[in-house]
From TrEMBL:
CDD domains: Lipase_3. One of its GO terms (biological process) is lipid metabolic process. It comes from Saccharothrix ecbatanensis. Pfam families: Lipase_3 (PF01764). Residues 75-208 form the Fungal lipase-type domain. This is Fungal lipase-type domain-containing protein. SUPFAM superfamilies: alpha/beta-Hydrolases. PANTHER family: ALPHA/BETA-HYDROLASES SUPERFAMILY PROTEIN (PTHR45856), FUNGAL LIPASE-LIKE DOMAIN-CONTAINING PROTEIN (PTHR45856:SF24).
Amino acid sequence: MSAPTLNHQATGYDARQAYCMAKAAELAYQDREQIEATAAEWGFDRVRHHHSTFSPPFALSDTQAYTMASPTMIVTAFRGTEPVQLRDWLSDTTTPPWPGPAGTGLVHYGFAEALRAVMPSVLAAVEELRDAEQTVWFTGHSLGGGLAMLAAAWLHFEDPRLSAQGVYTFGQPRTCDRSLASAYDKALKGRTFRVVNNNDIVAQVPPEPVFHHVASLRYIDSSGRVRESMPAVSNLLDRGKGMMADPLAPAGDGMRDHLMKAYVAALEKNLP
């Protein structure tokens, strides 16, 4: 498993950085030994692992992540979870949302539980490893994408000295109310990029209008091209085209588009 060199000073959306962050998010699904070996290949000589359990509805779940550090950059990547399980507890709206960071807006309580379980460990690792003013980055896929965005929010609003240089998420669900989304977009504009692959089903939960996405969308169309935006009608037509790519199982397109390997493959095709 290899990846192009990560750029610790990248600004704005960068196709190569997006691919690198997707590879880092993909690596979060591997075991500790593989994570450490691959991080070393990428020039990150120190790795800390994070693992904690929490209790959303339906089943006990766990939050897993790793933080890797080089002399110039610190990256925390959060691991995702099974799409069906994630969809189940994110669709539950019977429990009130939790207060957001520094009292800013509201967060879906499942995400709040998941992040609270592991954030102290992540923060301790970033503070320990940031010994040379390294830039700080967050990434993740699925549940991990939501946690990456929220971790950046918590850092910025609770401890601005550690505000993230960049956040790339893949197949991220909606995480928070309009108030926190707006404050986040203002605070981390140009530093957060929410990548969504065509009909990815997880990017469509939990339901609006209670929960909202942060901005800075990068949409992967049905042909695999990354777009900054698409007119509403064109977007609907493109999503329909994606569903018809497999006429024998059109309903499965949302799950196929959510796979981390689909994101990596598409972003690799978009490398300059």
